[in-house]
Amino acid sequence: MISRNDLCWCGSGQKWKKCHYPQHEPSLSQPLAMRYMKQYGIILKTAEQIAKIRHACKITALILDELCQKAAAGVTTIELDELSRKLHKQHNAIPAPLNYGEPPYPKTICTSLNEVICHGIPSQRPLINGDILNIDVSCIVNGFFGDCSRMVAIGEISQEKQLVMDVSKECLNRAISVCRPGAQIWQIGEAIEDYASAKGCSVVNQYVGHGVGIAFHEPPEIPHHYNRLAIEMVPGMIFTIEPMINAGVREGIIDEIDHWTVRTKDGKPSAQWEHTLLITENQCEILTSLFA
Ligand code: MF3
Ligand code: CO
After folding, report:
1. Which ligand 1 atom is at minimum distance from the Cα of 240?
2. Strands (E), the chain
3. Which residues have any ligand 1 atom within 6 Å of their CB?
4. Is the pLDDT of residue 13 over 90?
5. In this predicted structure, what is the pLDDT of residue 8?
6. Separation CA 220–CA 255 (nearest Å)
């Protein structure tokens, strides 16, 4: 159990109380919320918080959709970042990645191409026929967070790239379908790794999904690989699922110059889809769905 004086789970090196300690303490009239905070550091959201996070997630999904529509051969990922800045302003949203972490992340979105697993930085390189691209958007709207990502194929892509695009999407869908009150967090990794390995793909285990809503990254971690995390899903939990699926080995290497871009060790393609989910009274709601 994390205590106020322990190091923050975000890796900042600061005490939890000085860093990501929740501003919104659960009320004493909610025993389950008290227990989840004490045992796991998980903030079960109130109805008011859920309404605000739902709104932030909706805007995040709209921005992501517009960016995906703009992605085409000849467009640079810097141009996608420029459009992202404009869309965030239009929606009164703040891009959560900008200046996030150490070294400060330099752009408003992540654009991860081909063998890049995650945290690709928008650049002057134009998209070309045969590319696969993940666009990851994380927004702050009125102080609340949403987080989602999707893949886009540019023109004709190889069978191997099509495979990781399809498998990662199906992994996310299968993982979502296990989410409901009473299910365990480890079942998410089981659903994902069972399917990915049956399709001959590997599951990245260096990066995980996460609680989200009041902060960008809250407890719990959501592993996408086989694990034993025995945390029961309960109504009011909000977290992301964002499986990164590789055609070859699971290992990633962080770029030594920018300290962000993560590439597959063997250079084979990787793909990722992400949603923010709310556990409801009897199932789950995809907060970053465009269609809800
Ligand atoms: N969805 C990614 C995450 O949850 C977004 C990363 S943004 C970055 O971490 F700034 F950390 F790169
Ligand atoms: Co995320």
Report:
1. 4
2. 93-95, 110-113, 116-118, 132-141, 144-153, 202-203, 209-211, 218-222, 238-241, 244-246, 252-254, 262-264, 270-272, 275-279, 284-286
3. 97, 100-101, 105, 110, 119, 136, 138, 147, 210, 242, 274
4. no
5. 74
6. 27
CA distance 195 to 170: 8
Per-residue pLDDT tens over the stretch 16-37: 888 767 666 666 568 999 999 9
Map out the domains of the chain with their CATH numbers. Answer: 41-286 (3.90.230.10)
The ligand with the least distance to the CA atom of 134 is 1
- Average pLDDT in the 192-196 region? 99
Q: Which residue, judged by its Cα, is nearest atom 12 of ligand 1?
A: 119
CB atoms within 10 A of CB 29: 7
69 contact partners, CB below 8 Å, separation of at least 6: none
